[in-house]
Amino acid sequence: MSTSEFIWQPNEKYRQCRVSDFMHVHNISDWQRLIKKSSDDIEWFWSTFSQYAGMQWYKNYETLLSLPLSNQAPPHQPPDFAWAQWFVGGKINIAANCLDWHQVKGKRAGVRESVGKDHPAILWENESGDSRQLTYGQLNDMSGKIARYLKELSVKPKDAVGIYMPMVPEVVAVLFACWKIGAVAVPIFSGFGAEAVVSRLIDSQIKILFTADGGRRRGQLIPIKSDVDQAAKQLPSLKKVIVLEHCQNKIAWHEERDVWFHDALKTLVPLDTVEDLPAEHPSLYLYTSGTTAKPKGTIHTHAGALFQVAKELGFAFDVKSEDKFFWLTDIGWMMGPWEMIGVTFWGGTMVIFEGAPNYPDINRLWRLLEQQRISIFGISPTVIRLLKASAESSPENYNLQNIRLLGSTGEAWDPESYNWFFQRVGASRCPIINISGGTEILGCLLMPLPIMPLKVCSLGAPALAMDIDVFDETGKSVADSIGHLVCKKPAPSMTKGFLNDRERYIETYFKRFPGVWYHGDWAKKDQDGSWFLFGRSDDTIKVAGKRIGPAEIESVLIEHPQVSEAAAIGIPHKIKGEALICFVVLVSGLKQDSEYTSKLSSELREFIAKRMGAILRPEAVHIITSLPKTRSGKIVRAAIKRKYLGEPLGDISSVENPESLV
């Protein structure tokens, strides 16, 4: 199927969604006009969205957006855009909007109606099928008790609290407890080892760390607490470790430092949410992957995180109180806090899963979708490629009729995998809300709406109020041509610099095109107004003067019937400048003796040459058993390249399967 054809058109069911209602309220006739109006006048959008969504302010803001003069915003006169201040004078709290609001059923503000304390907030399930549920009342009660305990430990507003836990209901409660008292939550992927934990927590100077005795993945125990014990030796600011009894495994215990989670809370009365937090009070320190350098700590505010995420889950995913929303994620990936804020804001039910998507068998996720009657399901393209690679993966054998929206993010799609997801999981009736943005903005730059037609691999259009464009090398806007994805105006959720490294923030996002946010992705808007991504621009390979993104090569390789996954890198070449090297993982069940793999490698080299031109024939195609990936499913091409060239691997703490680089 061609990527130039629309494969999904919204019917009347999808046109009766929240973003359509917003357009009706503001007399906007179509989604193109909505995007243009929101981009042209971002202050109009965020002001009207606050009223429409029923944001609960303790004190309303005086100035919606303030752009300080560049000579007032260190360091070295960066663009005023970089240090934009939002909702100046206002006071707001994420927890108040997402938990407190729902304790009494039937309250209305804007279009929002509170669901009441008995409405399910969280459904948890693990690999083995064990499950638990928390209502909005139970979640708020647990969060309030944790908040009380943090106050007793003298945690003050802006103090950092680490969260190094598996995906269990308590992790959501801890997150909201931090916000209730104005502490800054620092969520960390529970699969990280001690050194990765140290690099993130020492940077944020945490005083308190929440963890668990262990976690489980692929039926195996993950000894989380032992990593904490090792990391604690290098964390001088750490005073207390609160341990959830989850796996009942044997652990070391430090009497002066360690406290059992259940012991800490058993006699406490829930604490009320604080009301005096400024709109730009920090809520989260989220760390990027850090595979190329020291991990970057992004800084997100209460108002910024709340507004951006509520917009996306309200308008792109149309979350309603009757929805069960499941995104395969971890607390350490931005999609974890993202779904926890957005689903609870709109009163839906989030489903969280602890474990691997293909364990104990390849159909584990499809059973979960059927049994929990999921209505909105999000996943990364990489995981779909993993599930698609097995002939035994059979989503069509499960009742997935409750799904009305599919979601994806994390990496560029290839057409074959996209169509498999669309046809086999969504039965060709559900749009794929394929979003892209980043940890740095806690949200989307590109974002389909359920009222727009979609093409294969498309990301729809610019996200509302984000003013997105594609620039060529000179900074000129281009259409129907691949260029650099940029954002020309500020957004409330953009990071407030990098923690302890403001200079690096300016260098990363504002040096390439002064005054404009440079995101580092290759993008294109076609003649029909559909937007596409082609991978990271810093991954670009230049062979004999021809620039090519690795995702383009990888998409072709994945079309070969024997290939399930692929990665492409460029290495120095005396004549061509760079030469193309490819790595592929074969579909399961294929023999991999040396004679077969040698023949297939040659076949794949010619397959690329035939499809992409002889100049792009790879120097080599290596058949391997697995590709190194982050927890969010991104292939770590930089680490592959360093390994191939015999260079030091650097920080690979975010790589979920580091053994693939051995």
Commentary on this structure:
The mean pLDDT is 92. Helix 6 crosses helix 7 (169-181), helix 8 (194-204) crosses helix 9 and helix 14 (381-388) packs across helix 15 (415-425). Helix content is 29%, strand content 24%. The chain has 19 helices and 35 strands. It has a seven-stranded mixed β-sheet. It has a five-stranded parallel β-sheet with strand order 11-10-12-15-16, sandwiched between helices. It starts with 5 loop residues before the first strand and ends in an 18-residue tail after the last helix. The chain has a domain at 539-661: GMP Synthetase, Chain A, domain 3 (2-Layer Sandwich), CATH 3.30.300.
Topology:
Layout: E1 6-8, H1 12-15, H2 18-25, H3 31-40, H4 42-53, E2 57-59, E3 63-66, E4 85-88, E5 91-92, H5 94-98, E6 108-109, E7 112-113, E8 120-126, E9 131-135, H6 136-152, E10 160-163, H7 169-181, E11 184-187, H8 194-204, E12 208-212, E13 215-217, E14 220-222, H9 224-232, E15 240-244, E16 258-260, H10 261-265, E17 282-287, E18 297-301, H11 302-316, E19 324-327, H12 335-345, E20 349-354, H13 364-371, E21 376-379, H14 381-388, E22 405-408, H15 415-425, E23 432-434, E24 436-438, E25 443-446, E26 454-455, E27 468-471, E28 483-487, H16 502-509, E29 517-525, E30 531-536, E31 541-543, E32 546-548, H17 550-559, E33 563-573, E34 577-586, H18 594-612, E35 620-624, H19 637-644
Parallel strand pairs: 8-20, 10-11, 10-12, 12-15, 15-16, 19-20, 19-21, 21-22, 22-23, 34-35
Antiparallel strand pairs: 1-26, 2-5, 3-4, 6-7, 8-9, 13-14, 17-18, 24-25, 27-28, 28-29, 29-30, 31-32, 33-34
Helix pairs in contact: 3-4, 6-7, 8-9, 11-12, 14-15
